[in-house]
Amino acid sequence: MKVASYNIHKCRGTDRRVRPDRIVSVLAEIGADLVALQEVDRRFGQRTGLLDPAAILRETGLHLLVQSDVVDGHGWHGNALLVRGEPLSYRRFRLKLPGVEPRGAVVAELDLGEGRFRVIAAHLGLLRRSRIDQATTLLHAFLELTPMPTILLGDFNEWRRGRRSALDVLVPHFADIKHPPSFPSRRPMLPLDRILAWPDGLISELAIHDTALSRKASDHLPLTARINVSRLQAAMVSAA
């Protein structure tokens, strides 16, 4: 199963043009089965979504799992999920994350045909102290839930590794995998976007989707990974 995380920067490209159609085309290029999106809604006013779910479905085969309570909204604090096909089962809830800026995370338990697993999708803050508190909140939520194979992904706004990283609190459960740089898209230098998983060994082929279009469509490049389905199924048996 291919998964991806993509901060679409409210569809504003590096040429400063707002072009949702380019984001849809990048999603088609990626060909993922599950995508966590960040910054999918307008920043001010009604916080309506910037994408066309019908166009996404038509061009990519992905369904938008709406997280917003706002009419025509897509995300929860900008976080939304796309999945290929209709899930066999789907349950979700939302977390408010602490910090100076309003931030949140989406927690979804779903089955796309290979067994149930959990996705935690988040966009962490710009301040290190906030990121530490937010990562701690995510960890506590994870530990309180029924054990289930879990993918934790999103724009974590963190480039450090080891004890200097705001994500260090996650390491006992989500291994500190070295990630390729994804920001800024024109000349990526910082690994702000992450895909982590529990238990260890679910992730392979971690990579940046780097094309002429993806370098223009947003200020972040999409991050992709393969989830080992056979290990996912084995992990489901162990968790049960």
Detailed description of the structure:
It is a single chain. The protein has 240 residues and is an alpha+beta fold. It has helices at residues 20-30, 53-60, 128-144, 212-217, 229-239; strands at 2-7, 34-38, 62-65, 80-84, 89-97, 103-111, 116-123, 150-155, 193-198, 203-208, 223-227. It has a six-stranded mixed beta sheet with strand order 3-4-2-1-11-10. It has a five-stranded mixed beta sheet with strand order 5-6-7-8-9, covered by helices on one side. α1 runs parallel beside α2. The longest helix is centred in the middle third of the chain and has 17 residues, at 128-144. The radius of gyration is 16 Å and the shape is globular. 42% of the residues are buried.
Helix segment tally: 5
Strand order of the largest sheet: 3-4-2-1-11-10
Tally the beta strands. Answer: 11
Helix fraction by DSSP (H/I, runs of at least 4): 10-25%
Assembly type? single chain
Q: Specify the biggest β-sheet.
A: 6 strands, mixed
Indicate the structural class.
alpha+beta
Fraction of residues in β-strands: 25-35%
Rounded mean pLDDT score: 92
Gyration radius over CA: 16 Å
* Broad shape: globular
Q: In angstroms, what separates the terminal alpha carbons?
A: 21 Å
Which residues form runs of ≥5 with pLDDT under 50? none
State the order of secondary-structure elements, H for helix, E for strand: EHEHEEEEEHEEEHEH
